[in-house]
Automatic annotation (TrEMBL), chain A:
It is found in: Cytoplasm. It comes from Marivibrio halodurans. The lineage of its organism: Bacteria, Pseudomonadati, Pseudomonadota, Alphaproteobacteria, Rhodospirillales. NCBIfam families: T6A_YjeE (TIGR00150). Its main location: cytoplasm. InterPro entries: P-loop_NTPase (IPR027417), T6A_TsaE (IPR003442). PANTHER family: TRNA THREONYLCARBAMOYLADENOSINE BIOSYNTHESIS PROTEIN TSAE. GO terms for molecular function: ATP binding; metal ion binding. This is tRNA threonylcarbamoyladenosine biosynthesis protein TsaE. Belongs to the TsaE family. It comes from the Bacteria. GO terms for biological process: tRNA threonylcarbamoyladenosine modification.
TrEMBL record, chain B:
It is an enzyme of class 2 (transferase). Required for the formation of a threonylcarbamoyl group on adenosine at position 37 (t(6)A37) in tRNAs that read codons beginning with adenine. Is involved in the transfer of the threonylcarbamoyl moiety of threonylcarbamoyl-AMP (TC-AMP) to the N6 group of A37, together with TsaE and TsaB. TsaD likely plays a direct catalytic role in this reaction. It catalyses: L-threonylcarbamoyladenylate + adenosine(37) in tRNA = N(6)-L-threonylcarbamoyladenosine(37) in tRNA + AMP + H(+). Belongs to the KAE1 / TsaD family. PANTHER family: TRNA N6-ADENOSINE THREONYLCARBAMOYLTRANSFERASE (PTHR11735), TRNA N6-ADENOSINE THREONYLCARBAMOYLTRANSFERASE, MITOCHONDRIAL (PTHR11735:SF6). This is tRNA N6-adenosine threonylcarbamoyltransferase. Its EC number is 2.3.1.234. Keywords: Acyltransferase, Cytoplasm, Iron, Metal-binding, Transferase, tRNA processing. Fe cation binds at residues 115, 119, 323. One of its GO terms (molecular function) is tRNA N(6)-L-threonylcarbamoyladenine synthase activity.
Length: 167, 375
C-alpha cells in the first residue's frame, strides 16, 4: 500500500473575524470521524472562535452555546453521525494528564478539535490537520484583528480535503 | 437531617457534612477541600488534578476526615449526595460511585446533585435567617468555568437569563494575568496589580488612564456576556507598545481590564435585575456565587447595581463560593427535604445545563408550594 499523498502547507489570509468564522464553517463541514485538528496559536489568536464556528456549522445550530473549554478541558457535541470533542489543554502541563481525559479512546471515533495540542507531546496523532492562527498587525479598534492561518497535513489524512478549506 | 456531600467534578476533591433543620436553617459540620494551590504555583500555571485516579486516591481519606471533624459516623447520616455532573466524566464517576456504594451499604438515600445547582442554592445555606434567601432570587454565577445570570424560582427551577457566548470571566482574569505575567492564580493577581496602579496614579496625579479597552456587551438588549474580545484587546495593547512593558504599564493594563470586566458585569446584571423585577418579582435578592465573587471591585459594582434596582445583595463567604462539597451536601439536603432522591442507576452527565433540571423539580410544585413546604 502506498502512503497517501501529502499536501503542501497552505496559507489563508483572514482579514477579519468573519473570515476566521468562514474558515471554521468550512472546517466543520469537512470533519469526519477519527479526525484530529490541532489548533495552535497564541492567547487571543482566535482558536476558540474558529472551533465555535466549526461546531455550530456541523450541528447546523447558528446560535449554539459553545463555551470555552479552558476550565472544563473537554466539551462534547453530538452532530448527526459524528461526535465532536472540543478540547483545550491550556491548563495541563503533563502529557499524561491529557491521556487521563480519555482522549486516546476518542481519537478513534470522534472528530477532535484540540487547542494547545503541544501539551500532548508525542501522544498527538500523526494523522491530523495542523491549523495555526497568528495575528498580523493590531488594528486600532475592537478585537476584529487580521489573522493568518497556516494549514498543514503532516501524514496525508487531509490530502483530498485541505484545498476545500480555502475561501 | 445530616447529609454527606461529595464533589469531584473538576479540579477539587472535596467532602462535607451539612445539617438542615426543620426550619430550613443550614449548619456546616465539616467542609474538607483538597486544594493543591501551593504546588500549582510552583509551575507558574494551573496543574489541575483532573485525573479520575487522583480523586480516587484522596476521596476515602477526605470522607473519613469530614466524618471525624463532624463527630459523625455513617450511622448518623440521613443521605449521601454527590455531584453527578456537569464536569469531567472520570472524576464525576468516582464521586457518584463512591456515594452510591455508601448509600447502598448503609441503606441510605442517594441524591445526584447538579454542580451548578450546588452553587445556586449556597446562599440558602449561609443566610443567617432562611427568609433572607427564600425563593425566588436572581443569581449571578461567576467562576473560572461559568458566567450566567439565573432566575432561581425553587429547587430544580432555574431559568437562564443570560450566559457567556465565549469565555467565562474567571478564565479572562486568568488569561489576562498570564498575558501580563502577573502570576497565578490570575484573579487575585490582577486585583492586586490594579490596586498598585490606582495608588501610583493617585500619587502622580494622573487622571487619564493610559489604556483604553472596550466594555464588552454594554448596552446590549439581552443579558449575555462576552470576555474573549476584552482579553484580545489586552494582548493588542501589549503588542502596540514600542518597548517591552514595564511593571507600571502591566499594572495599568490590569487595572483597565478589571475596571471594564466589572463594568460589563454590572451592565449585564443591571439588565437582568430589570428583567427579573418585571417578569418574576420586585424587591427580591441579588445573589452572587462562584470564585470571581471574591473580587472587591466586582462586588462593589454588584452591590451598587442591586441597590439601584431595589434589591438586597447577598454574597456567601468566599470559601463557599469556590468549588466545595458543603454546597453539594446542602443541595442534597434541600432535595431530600422535598422527597427528591435518585436511584442507584442514575447515570452521571458530563453536560448538564441547569435549565434541564425541570424534570428534577418537585412535581407540580412551584416556588410558592416549596415555600409552604418550609423550603
Amino acid at each position: 500500500m502506498t502512503a497517501p499523498p501529502i499536501a503542501d502547507p497552505i496559507e489563508i489570509e483572514l482579514p477579519d473575524l468573519a473570515a476566521t468564522r468562514a474558515l471554521g464553517t468550512a472546517l466543520g463541514a469537512a470533519l469526519r470521524p477519527g479526525d484530529v485538528v490541532a489548533l495552535s496559536g497564541d492567547l487571543g489568536a482566535g482558536k476558540s472562535e474558529l472551533a465555535r464556528a466549526a461546531i455550530r456549522a456541523r450541528l447546523a445550530v447558528p446560535d449554539l452555546e459553545v463555551p470555552s473549554p479552558t476550565f472544563t478541558l473537554v466539551q462534547t457535541y453530538e452532530a448527526p453521525a459524528l461526535e465532536i470533542w472540543h478540547v483545550d489543554l491550556y491548563r495541563l502541563e503533563r502529557p499524561g494528564d491529557a491521556l487521563e481525559l480519555g482522549l486516546e479512546e476518542a481519537f478513534a471515533d470522534a472528530a477532535m478539535l484540540i487547542e494547545w495540542p503541544g501539551r500532548l507531546g508525542d501522544a498527538l496523532p500523526a494523522a491530523r490537520l495542523d491549523l495555526c492562527l497568528s495575528v498580523i498587525g493590531a488594528p486600532d479598534t475592537g478585537g476584529d484583528g487580521a489573522r493568518r492561518a497556516m494549514l498543514a497535513d503532516p501524514a496525508g489524512a487531509w490530502a483530498t480535503r485541505i484545498e476545500g478549506l480555502r475561501p | 437531617m445530616r447529609i454527606l456531600g461529595i464533589e469531584t467534578s473538576c479540579d477539587e476533591t472535596a467532602a462535607a457534612i451539612v445539617e438542615r433543620d426543620a426550619n430550613g436553617r443550614g449548619l456546616i459540620r465539616a467542609n474538607v477541600v483538597l486544594s493543591q494551590l501551593d504546588e500549582h504555583r510552583a509551575y507558574g500555571g494551573v496543574v489541575p488534578e483532573i485525573a479520575a485516579r487522583s480523586h480516587l486516591d484522596h476521596l476515602d481519606r477526605l470522607i473519613a476526615q469530614a466524618l471525624e471533624e463532624a463527630g459523625s459516623g455513617f450511622d448518623d447520616l440521613d443521605g449521601i449526595a454527590a455531584t453527578a455532573g456537569p464536569g469531567l466524566i472520570g472524576g464525576v464517576m468516582v464521586g457518584a460511585l463512591t456515594a452510591k456504594a455508601i448509600a447502598w451499604a448503609r441503606g441510605l438515600p442517594f441524591i445526584a446533585v447538579n454542580h451548578l445547582e450546588g452553587h445556586a442554592l449556597t446562599a440558602r445555606l449561609t443566610a443567617d435567617d432562611p427568609a433572607e434567601a427564600a425563593f425566588p432570587y436572581l443569581l449571578l454565577l461567576v467562576s473560572g468555568g461559568h458566567c450566567q445570570l439565573l432566575a432561581v424560582e425553587g429547587v430544580g427551577r432555574y431559568r437562564v437569563l443570560g450566559t457567556t457566548v465565549d469565555d467565562a470571566v474567571g478564565e479572562a482574569f486568568d488569561k489576562t494575568a498570564k498575558l501580563l505575567d502577573l502570576g497565578y492564580p490570575g484573579g487575585p493577581a490582577v486585583e492586586r496589580a490594579a490596586e498598585r496602579s490606582a495608588r501610583r496614579r493617585a500619587e502622580a496625579g494622573e487622571e487619564t488612564p493610559r489604556f483604553r479597552l472596550p466594555i464588552p456587551m454594554r448596552g446590549r438588549d439581552d443579558c449575555a456576556f462576552s470576555f474573549s474580545g476584552l482579553k484580545t484587546a489586552v494582548r493588542q495593547q501589549l503588542e502596540r507598545l514600542d518597548t517591552p512593558p514595564g511593571e507600571a504599564e502591566r499594572e495599568d493594563l490590569a487595572a483597565a481590564f478589571q475596571t471594564n470586566a466589572a463594568r460589563s458585569i454590572a451592565d449585564r446584571t443591571a439588565r437582568a435585575c430589570a428583567r427579573f423585577t418585571a417578569e418574576v418579582a420586585p424587591g427580591r435578592p441579588l445573589v452572587v456565587a462562584g470564585g470571581v465573587a471574591a473580587n472587591k471591585v466586582i462586588r462593589a459594582e454588584l452591590a451598587r447595581v442591586a441597590d439601584a434596582a431595589g434589591m438586597t445583595f447577598l454574597a456567601p463567604p468566599l470559601k463557599l463560593c469556590t468549588d466545595n462539597a458543603a454546597m453539594i451536601a446542602w443541595a442534597g439536603a434541600e432535595r431530600l427535604a422535598l422527597g427528591l432522591t435518585d436511584g442507584l442507576d442514575f447515570r452521571p452527565r458530563p453536560r448538564w445545563p441547569l435549565a434541564d433540571l425541570a424534570d428534577r423539580a418537585p412535581p407540580g410544585a412551584g416556588a410558592a408550594a416549596q415555600a409552604e413546604a418550609g423550603a
